[in-house]
């Protein structure tokens, strides 16, 4: 049996402004409040001795920041943690220790691609800012999902309605492939944290017509709804 800890990314700047179409929020990052949310989770995970064998993470910055700050107690010893507790500059990541488990960026676990805040940076840029993340599952340097819908509907200046959220076939395919990423992990990895996004979780867990997940009983269904 595998255990999954489902984590929605912490508060991003786009969540506060609600201006999802603003180019300033391309691949939106966490707010200071969002970072503090993660630090509180890190404290709780450490106190409760929650262990994971692998983190599967959306390749969006807000998700990888959430993974980092929520599990930062694995990146530093206590002295280092105290020294770096107020350091939010991700350019300093090359000075941290690698955690004792892989953090794997996975395109299929990213947010539904609708607005400019959902466009990810290039793989090259992300690898520089998040050197502790394994990007081998991210095949393309530039964002392939945004390009697909941009070719279909036009740029964000031309078309400002929902994109992927209206494409049930694509959501179903991506949702199933997201689970395949976990199923294909080595058998010795039994406990996972999955860091993703609210809209993608909504489509995955609360839309039975997509047939992405099934529930053992009504109690589990209610918990995930």
Task: Describe this structure as you would to a colleague.
Helix 2 runs parallel beside helix 3 (61-70). The protein has helices at residues 13-17, 32-47, 61-70, 78-84, 123-129, 144-153, 168-183, 198-206, 218-224; strands at residues 3-8, 54-57, 103-105, 191-196. The protein is globular and about 50 Å long. A four-stranded parallel β-sheet has the order 1-4-2-3. It is built from nine helices and four strands, in the order E-H-H-E-H-H-E-H-H-H-E-H-H. The chain is an alpha/beta fold and 225 residues long.
Oligomeric nature of the chains: single chain
The termini sit apart by 22 Å
Range of helix content: 25-40%
Number of helices, where a helix is a run of at least 4 consecutive DSSP H or I residues: 9
Mean pLDDT: 90
Strand line-up in the sheet with most strands = 1-4-2-3
The class by helix and strand makeup works out as alpha/beta
Beta strand %: 5-15%
| Sheet having the most strands | 4 strands, parallel
Total strand segments = 4
State the low-pLDDT regions, or none: 78-94
Global Rg: 17 Å
What is the ordering of alpha helices and beta strands?
EHHEHHEHHHEHH
What spatial form do the alpha-carbon principal axes imply? Answer: globular
């Amino acid at each position: 049996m595998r255990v999954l800890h489902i984590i929605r990314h912490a508060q991003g700047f786009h969540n506060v402004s609600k201006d999802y179409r603003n180019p300033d929020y391309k691949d939106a990052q966490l707010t200071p409040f969002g970072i503090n949310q993660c630090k509180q989770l890190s404290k709780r995970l450490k106190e409760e001795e929650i262990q994971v064998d692998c983190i599967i993470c959306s390749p969006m910055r807000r998700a990888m920041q959430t993974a980092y700050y929520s599990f930062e107690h694995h990146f530093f010893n206590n002295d280092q943690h105290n020294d770096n507790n107020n350091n939010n500059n991700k350019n300093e990541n090359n000075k941290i220790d690698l955690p004792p488990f892989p953090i794997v960026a996975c395109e299929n676990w990213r947010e539904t691609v609708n607005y400019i805040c959902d466009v990810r940076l290039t793989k090259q840029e992300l690898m520089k800012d998040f050197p502790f993340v394994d990007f081998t599952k991210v095949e393309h340097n530039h964002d392939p999902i945004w390009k697909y819908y941009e070719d279909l509907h036009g740029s964000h200046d031309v078309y400002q309605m929902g994109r992927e959220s209206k494409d049930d076939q694509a959501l179903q395919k991506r949702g199933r492939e997201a689970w395949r990423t976990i199923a294909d992990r080595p058998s010795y990895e039994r406990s996972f944290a999955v860091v993703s996004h609210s809209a993608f979780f909504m489509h995955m867990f609360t839309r039975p017509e997509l047939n992405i997940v099934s529930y053992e009983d009504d109690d589990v269904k209610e918990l995930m709804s």
